[in-house]
Amino acid sequence: MHAPTAESLAERLLRADRAALARLISWAENGDARFSAALDRVYSRVGRAARTGFTGPPGAGKSTLVNEVAKAYRGRGATVGVLAVDPSSPFSGGALLGDRIRMEERTLDPGVFIRSMASRESHGGVAQATVDACDVMDAFGLAEILIETVGVGQAEYDVVAVADTVVVVLCPGAGDGIQAMKAGLLEVADVLVVNKSDLPGADRLARDLDEAVHVRFGREQAFPVPVVSLCASSGEGVAELLEAVDGHRAWLAARDLPAARLAKRAERVRKTVDAEVSLALWGRRGWGAFVAAELAAGLAPHRVARELGRRVSETLPPAPGAPESNFRGERA
Ligand SMILES: Nc1nc2c(ncn2[C@@H]2O[C@H](COP(=O)(O)OP(=O)(O)O)[C@@H](O)[C@H]2O)c(=O)[nH]1
Ligand SMILES: [Mg+2]
């Protein structure tokens, strides 16, 4: 078989070829050099899908819930793409196999596309690979994109931040809401879910969270984060979650969704450039070895840093249209 070109895959994607979609997501996952050329060709079709992220501690019931939410959106007649991202796994799929099997009942439905994605510390990182994968699912024509991330940490926050709406899933037991607050989970939530409402402690957790978000958001011009109690294993309360997500979408739409998305995209460009510049500087351009040598010769770290910072900054060209100034921002 010939290696597919960016052009041929892009064209097949627009003809709704699922194998092409799977291949493009692999390219995104692996940081394949052909990816951006393929995305360029379909980019005018990106931007129609709604993207919802699900995060929370392991075992909270995210996979069970995503499965139910996928079902509910199918019930509304929407096509659904599910992306399960494990930022910690170097292996494609492996760690998420259990989740994938549980999702199996959905995979027989042509209106659903499910994909597990590991993401090694590739070019631009996990969040970049996730946005790329979402973009191709979007261009493919899937209406609802659900992103599940495994684990709790900065990488996971970066991943769910690519979604328009972030759902944080918690459940009673194991440290509860206090843990969530410590972990900064409330900060990223647009909607809070207390799952396992069938278990003792769920009501209490919901009340605590309700209070916590009121304290936090009472004073800000922010979206009033709803707390939704549900039981993912029976599906009870999932309809209410969809309503809460709809509410957040309406709130976004009444503000400036395009601007919000644009800001996220700008951030993404910056992160990619940061990563590229950093690689070039410390690796290919040899400054890593230079710094090591200077430090070994007994120079203080702050002196080495200042000197290197100055030399690098001085070589930075101003952006087209930016005022002429030196690297410190002082006008020439
Ligand atoms: N009692 C109860 N158990 C649930 C509920 N939802 C999920 N679970 C169970 O919780 C465990 C973890 O669920 P899973 O979806 O894999 O969690 P994830 O790690 O967050 O993706 C599984 O054994 C589920 O069957 C629920 O609403 N009630
Ligand atoms: Mg899971």
Query: Mind telling me the CATH class of the largest domain?
Result: Alpha Beta
CATH fold call of the largest domain: Rossmann fold
Strand order of the largest sheet: 3-2-4-1-5-6-7
Topology order in helix (H) and strand (E) letters? HHHEHEHHEHEHEHHEHEHHHH
Q: Identify low-pLDDT runs.
A: 92-98
Strand residues, percent:
5-15%
Number of helices: 15
Query: What molecules are bound to this protein?
Result: guanosine-5'-diphosphate, magnesium ion
Domains (count) = 2
Indicate the structural class.
alpha/beta
Number of strands: 7
Ends: how far apart? 59 Å
Give the radius of gyration.
22 Å
The CATH H-level homologous superfamily of the largest domain: P-loop containing nucleotide triphosphate hydrolases
